[in-house]
Write a structure and sequence with these properties.
By secondary structure, this protein is of the alpha/beta class. The chain has a single domain, classed as Rossmann fold. The protein has six helices and nine strands. Helix 4 crosses helix 6.
Amino acid sequence: MQDRYPAGSFAREDEAPDSEFYAEPRLVQHIDDYAIAAIGEAYRQFLPPDGEYLDLMSSWVSHFPDDMPVNRLVGLGMNEVELARNPRLAEYAVHDLNADPHLPYEDARFDGVVIAVSVQYLTRPVEVFAEIGRVLKPGAPVVVCYSNRCFPTKAVRIWLALDDREKADLIATYIVGSGAFDLPSLHDFSPRSTLIGVPMQQWPKVRSGEVYTDPLYVVVAHGKA
Protein backbone atom coordinates (compact mmCIF):
# COMPACT_ATOMS: atom_id res chain seq x y z
CA MET A 1 0.00 0.00 0.00
CA GLN A 2 3.02 2.30 0.36
CA ASP A 3 4.93 1.53 -2.84
CA ARG A 4 3.91 4.97 -4.20
CA TYR A 5 6.44 6.62 -1.86
CA PRO A 6 10.18 6.89 -2.52
CA ALA A 7 12.30 4.03 -1.23
CA GLY A 8 13.29 4.54 2.38
CA SER A 9 10.49 7.04 3.11
CA PHE A 10 9.43 5.20 6.24
CA ALA A 11 12.89 4.36 7.54
CA ARG A 12 14.01 5.94 10.81
CA GLU A 13 17.31 6.77 12.42
CA ASP A 14 16.43 4.50 15.34
CA GLU A 15 15.08 1.20 14.01
CA ALA A 16 15.16 -0.54 17.39
CA PRO A 17 11.75 -1.94 18.44
CA ASP A 18 9.36 0.82 19.40
CA SER A 19 8.42 -1.14 22.51
CA GLU A 20 11.93 -0.43 23.83
CA PHE A 21 11.79 3.31 23.09
CA TYR A 22 8.40 3.72 24.77
CA ALA A 23 9.08 1.38 27.69
CA GLU A 24 9.73 4.28 30.07
CA PRO A 25 6.76 6.60 30.69
CA ARG A 26 7.16 10.22 29.62
CA LEU A 27 4.76 12.21 31.78
CA VAL A 28 5.50 15.53 30.09
CA GLN A 29 3.78 17.79 27.57
CA HIS A 30 5.30 17.73 24.08
CA ILE A 31 3.77 21.02 22.91
CA ASP A 32 3.01 24.23 24.79
CA ASP A 33 -0.24 25.05 26.57
CA TYR A 34 -1.46 27.29 23.77
CA ALA A 35 -1.09 24.62 21.08
CA ILE A 36 -2.80 22.18 23.45
CA ALA A 37 -5.71 24.60 23.77
CA ALA A 38 -5.86 24.80 19.98
CA ILE A 39 -6.13 21.00 19.75
CA GLY A 40 -9.09 21.15 22.12
CA GLU A 41 -10.77 23.74 19.93
CA ALA A 42 -10.22 21.57 16.86
CA TYR A 43 -11.89 18.65 18.63
CA ARG A 44 -14.76 20.88 19.64
CA GLN A 45 -15.18 22.07 16.06
CA PHE A 46 -14.82 18.84 14.11
CA LEU A 47 -16.10 16.04 16.38
CA PRO A 48 -19.82 15.39 16.86
CA PRO A 49 -20.80 16.17 20.48
CA ASP A 50 -21.18 13.55 23.18
CA GLY A 51 -19.84 10.67 21.12
CA GLU A 52 -17.55 7.69 21.65
CA TYR A 53 -14.10 8.61 20.42
CA LEU A 54 -10.81 6.78 19.91
CA ASP A 55 -7.66 8.62 20.98
CA LEU A 56 -5.09 6.89 18.80
CA MET A 57 -1.42 6.86 19.84
CA SER A 58 -2.60 8.20 23.19
CA SER A 59 -0.63 8.83 26.37
CA TRP A 60 -1.16 10.22 29.88
CA VAL A 61 -3.21 13.18 28.68
CA SER A 62 -5.89 13.65 26.05
CA HIS A 63 -6.62 17.13 24.78
CA PHE A 64 -10.41 17.22 25.01
CA PRO A 65 -11.66 20.41 26.71
CA ASP A 66 -13.14 19.81 30.15
CA ASP A 67 -16.47 21.26 29.09
CA MET A 68 -16.75 19.27 25.84
CA PRO A 69 -19.41 16.54 26.09
CA VAL A 70 -17.76 13.11 25.75
CA ASN A 71 -19.82 9.98 26.13
CA ARG A 72 -16.80 7.65 26.17
CA LEU A 73 -13.12 8.01 25.34
CA VAL A 74 -11.00 5.01 24.40
CA GLY A 75 -7.20 5.20 24.22
CA LEU A 76 -4.64 3.15 22.31
CA GLY A 77 -0.96 3.77 22.98
CA MET A 78 2.45 2.33 23.68
CA ASN A 79 2.96 2.76 27.43
CA GLU A 80 0.60 1.31 30.03
CA VAL A 81 1.73 3.62 32.83
CA GLU A 82 0.92 6.66 30.70
CA LEU A 83 -2.46 5.30 29.62
CA ALA A 84 -3.41 4.31 33.18
CA ARG A 85 -2.63 7.88 34.32
CA ASN A 86 -4.97 9.41 31.73
CA PRO A 87 -8.12 10.42 33.66
CA ARG A 88 -10.23 10.88 30.53
CA LEU A 89 -9.96 7.30 29.28
CA ALA A 90 -12.79 4.88 29.99
CA GLU A 91 -10.69 2.04 28.58
CA TYR A 92 -7.31 1.63 26.94
CA ALA A 93 -5.16 -0.84 25.02
CA VAL A 94 -1.38 -1.09 24.70
CA HIS A 95 -0.68 -1.74 21.04
CA ASP A 96 2.21 -1.12 18.61
CA LEU A 97 0.73 0.06 15.31
CA ASN A 98 4.06 -0.22 13.53
CA ALA A 99 4.24 -3.91 14.39
CA ASP A 100 0.54 -4.54 13.72
CA PRO A 101 -1.65 -1.82 12.14
CA HIS A 102 -4.86 -3.72 12.91
CA LEU A 103 -7.03 -1.93 15.49
CA PRO A 104 -8.55 -4.21 18.16
CA TYR A 105 -12.05 -2.78 17.77
CA GLU A 106 -15.19 -3.78 15.92
CA ASP A 107 -16.35 -2.19 12.68
CA ALA A 108 -18.21 1.14 12.75
CA ARG A 109 -17.82 1.63 16.50
CA PHE A 110 -16.55 5.19 16.93
CA ASP A 111 -18.06 8.63 16.34
CA GLY A 112 -14.59 10.07 15.80
CA VAL A 113 -10.89 9.18 15.87
CA VAL A 114 -8.15 11.64 16.87
CA ILE A 115 -4.38 11.56 16.49
CA ALA A 116 -2.48 14.29 18.34
CA VAL A 117 1.13 15.15 17.44
CA SER A 118 2.13 11.54 16.75
CA VAL A 119 1.26 10.70 13.13
CA GLN A 120 4.94 11.26 12.23
CA TYR A 121 5.90 7.98 13.92
CA LEU A 122 3.75 5.67 11.77
CA THR A 123 5.77 3.41 9.50
CA ARG A 124 2.67 1.82 7.93
CA PRO A 125 0.36 4.83 7.84
CA VAL A 126 -1.84 3.88 4.89
CA GLU A 127 -2.73 0.59 6.57
CA VAL A 128 -3.45 2.39 9.82
CA PHE A 129 -5.78 4.87 8.13
CA ALA A 130 -7.59 2.02 6.40
CA GLU A 131 -8.18 0.57 9.87
CA ILE A 132 -9.34 3.94 11.18
CA GLY A 133 -11.89 4.04 8.40
CA ARG A 134 -13.08 0.57 9.36
CA VAL A 135 -13.71 1.38 13.03
CA LEU A 136 -15.39 4.75 12.32
CA LYS A 137 -19.11 5.01 11.82
CA PRO A 138 -20.02 6.01 8.23
CA GLY A 139 -19.40 9.72 7.74
CA ALA A 140 -17.57 10.13 11.07
CA PRO A 141 -14.36 12.19 11.18
CA VAL A 142 -10.70 11.49 11.76
CA VAL A 143 -8.94 14.56 13.19
CA VAL A 144 -5.14 14.60 12.85
CA CYS A 145 -3.28 17.38 14.69
CA TYR A 146 0.43 18.03 14.23
CA SER A 147 3.04 20.60 15.18
CA ASN A 148 6.77 20.97 14.52
CA ARG A 149 7.87 18.93 17.53
CA CYS A 150 8.87 15.26 17.48
CA PHE A 151 11.39 12.65 18.57
CA PRO A 152 13.55 12.95 15.43
CA THR A 153 15.16 9.53 15.78
CA LYS A 154 11.72 7.89 15.68
CA ALA A 155 10.01 10.08 13.06
CA VAL A 156 9.96 8.62 9.56
CA ARG A 157 12.41 10.04 7.04
CA ILE A 158 9.82 11.53 4.70
CA TRP A 159 8.25 13.53 7.55
CA LEU A 160 11.57 15.10 8.51
CA ALA A 161 12.22 16.13 4.89
CA LEU A 162 9.03 18.23 4.56
CA ASP A 163 8.03 21.69 5.78
CA ASP A 164 4.91 22.29 7.86
CA ARG A 165 2.59 22.79 4.87
CA GLU A 166 3.96 19.80 2.98
CA LYS A 167 3.34 17.60 6.01
CA ALA A 168 -0.40 18.21 5.57
CA ASP A 169 -0.14 17.00 1.98
CA LEU A 170 1.67 13.89 3.20
CA ILE A 171 -1.08 13.11 5.71
CA ALA A 172 -3.61 13.65 2.92
CA THR A 173 -1.87 10.99 0.82
CA TYR A 174 -2.18 8.54 3.72
CA ILE A 175 -5.89 9.28 4.01
CA VAL A 176 -6.63 9.14 0.30
CA GLY A 177 -4.44 6.08 -0.19
CA SER A 178 -6.41 4.16 2.43
CA GLY A 179 -9.52 4.36 0.24
CA ALA A 180 -11.68 4.78 3.34
CA PHE A 181 -12.35 8.54 3.36
CA ASP A 182 -13.68 11.47 1.43
CA LEU A 183 -11.12 14.12 0.48
CA PRO A 184 -9.39 15.67 3.53
CA SER A 185 -9.15 19.35 4.43
CA LEU A 186 -6.33 21.31 6.11
CA HIS A 187 -6.89 23.86 8.88
CA ASP A 188 -4.33 26.15 10.52
CA PHE A 189 -5.09 26.35 14.25
CA SER A 190 -1.74 27.88 15.17
CA PRO A 191 -2.19 30.25 18.17
CA ARG A 192 -1.05 33.58 16.77
CA SER A 193 -2.69 36.96 17.34
CA THR A 194 -5.72 35.29 18.91
CA LEU A 195 -5.26 32.53 21.45
CA ILE A 196 -8.42 30.44 21.43
CA GLY A 197 -9.97 30.22 24.87
CA VAL A 198 -6.95 31.71 26.68
CA PRO A 199 -7.26 35.07 28.52
CA MET A 200 -4.95 37.75 27.17
CA GLN A 201 -3.15 38.17 30.51
CA GLN A 202 -1.94 34.56 30.15
CA TRP A 203 -0.38 35.08 26.74
CA PRO A 204 3.40 34.79 26.36
CA LYS A 205 5.53 37.59 24.93
CA VAL A 206 3.61 39.64 22.39
CA ARG A 207 5.30 41.70 19.67
CA SER A 208 3.63 43.50 16.78
CA GLY A 209 0.32 41.86 17.58
CA GLU A 210 1.60 38.31 17.19
CA VAL A 211 1.98 35.60 19.78
CA TYR A 212 4.86 33.16 19.34
CA THR A 213 3.92 29.62 20.30
CA ASP A 214 4.13 26.14 18.83
CA PRO A 215 2.26 25.93 15.52
CA LEU A 216 -0.73 23.61 15.27
CA TYR A 217 -2.22 22.23 12.06
CA VAL A 218 -5.23 19.98 11.64
CA VAL A 219 -6.11 17.57 8.83
CA VAL A 220 -9.71 16.34 8.86
CA ALA A 221 -11.43 13.70 6.75
CA HIS A 222 -14.76 11.89 6.99
CA GLY A 223 -15.28 8.21 6.47
CA LYS A 224 -17.15 7.20 3.38
CA ALA A 225 -20.86 6.70 3.98
